[in-house]
Amino acid sequence: MAASKKIKCTFENCNEYFETSKEMKKHKKYATHHEYCHICDIDFKDWSTATAHKSQMSGMDIYRKTRKQYQREKDQGIFWSNREKFGKDYGELKFHKYFCKFCGAESHTESARQRHTLQVHPIDQGIKCPGCEETFPRAAGLVYHLEEGHCKKISATEFKGFRQHKTMVNKLLQDPSLLSEILSKDMYSFIDAACDHAKEGGVSLLDIKDDDITWDEEVLLPDVPVIKPSMPLEQQTWPALHSAVSNLSIKENISGTTEVGSRKATDGSMKLLAATKASPVANEWQEKQRVIYNEGRSSNILTFQFWNPAHPDYDPNRFWDPLIEKHRCPFPNCEKLFEVSLDCHRHIDKEHMLKKIRCPLCFKVFKSHHALIEHVERSSKCAIKHSRKFGQTLDEFSGGFLSHTIAAHPDLKAEDDGYEVGYVKFKSTVPTGWEKREQVTVSTMI
């Protein structure tokens, strides 16, 4: 048999013989025990060497030129002048497919290869929990850790509260008119308004004009927080507020009184937190605004979790209406009344906590937050992580415990592997108001 077939397979450990060179090359191409590139007609000793070659040559021919390069030369008339060099027409050129560096899987396009690399060979991201500092390879693992109450320092109730607060902020941004309804249920606003005037004479602060005040710039600078945050706060996740929602920040008013009998209070009485010190020194104040924001001492309702029973900001007496002697539900569009604060607490937890967890792009519903984050990480059909508002969406999904950046795959280099892949790199952060929670925890321990 071997006498009639004189062409032996070029692999040393193969004793196959063939009548023609074409049959022998076809054998090497399809034989599972041979590592062979049929485009370049090169034999390789092992799988790793062959895979590295195919990865580097992906999309190119034996002259290391792509279809786009040939098409460009063809349009310019250069290709036809070099036809003798190539020895064949444009349509006869053979190009490598696109091969994965890690497993050698074939793809027909570069985008398909990149998608395969990200899905099948994900990067261990090493995301650290901001509470117990346990490390997780995936963002969904961190969210599962927090959502299921496995963290020793952050309870599942706290995570749920931060997650709900992000949704509340989103609703206020979309419909600022909800703020007036929320403030109308805040009994502290009217109590403060009723106590604005002194009963024993003296000079009223309301009559003092700004021009008569001599400001001490050093004193008026905002205080530096004693407890530093252990994790970075992402302040650029959410877009800047539109002018229509500028009134969401509760400000002092030094030129008006309050009609106590009405439901309308002055801006000065609408304090949901103790107001920070005012300062006319613009530059110094702007430099310290980030510190104040992180400290959680701002009177901005967007950072104040007045409705969350698991948060230090929550005070059931705030929504006790002395006229009807009942607690009002603090949520907008809810007129429920309760005689006992515990009933109000239970109502908030049962009726107003998130029930449907839905992807805002593909509208798929999930049973848990970590399932939604896993969908964001791994799904190839839903392109939410490539959308412009992904940073804001991720911040809401994770309750402020996750942020992201775009990075290059650390194990892929164009000069060595033939291609590069960009991926979404997740990192853990802490939500707004975290420092306030830490201060309460420290004071409780003391």
UniProtKB/TrEMBL annotation:
<keyword id="KW-0863">Zinc-finger</keyword>
<keyword id="KW-0479">Metal-binding</keyword>
<dbReference type="InterPro" id="IPR013087">
    <property type="entry name" value="Znf_C2H2_type"/>
</dbReference>
<keyword id="KW-0862">Zinc</keyword>
<dbReference type="GO" id="GO:0000978">
    <property type="term" value="F:RNA polymerase II cis-regulatory region sequence-specific DNA binding"/>
</dbReference>
<dbReference type="GO" id="GO:0010557">
    <property type="term" value="P:positive regulation of macromolecule biosynthetic process"/>
</dbReference>
<dbReference type="InterPro" id="IPR050329">
    <property type="entry name" value="GLI_C2H2-zinc-finger"/>
</dbReference>
<feature type="domain" description="C2H2-type">
    <location>
        <begin position="7"/>
        <end position="33"/>
    </location>
</feature>
<dbReference type="GO" id="GO:0000981">
    <property type="term" value="F:DNA-binding transcription factor activity, RNA polymerase II-specific"/>
</dbReference>
<keyword id="KW-0677">Repeat</keyword>
<dbReference type="GO" id="GO:0005634">
    <property type="term" value="C:nucleus"/>
</dbReference>
<protein>
    <recommendedName>
        <fullName>C2H2-type domain-containing protein</fullName>
    </recommendedName>
</protein>
<dbReference type="GO" id="GO:0008270">
    <property type="term" value="F:zinc ion binding"/>
</dbReference>
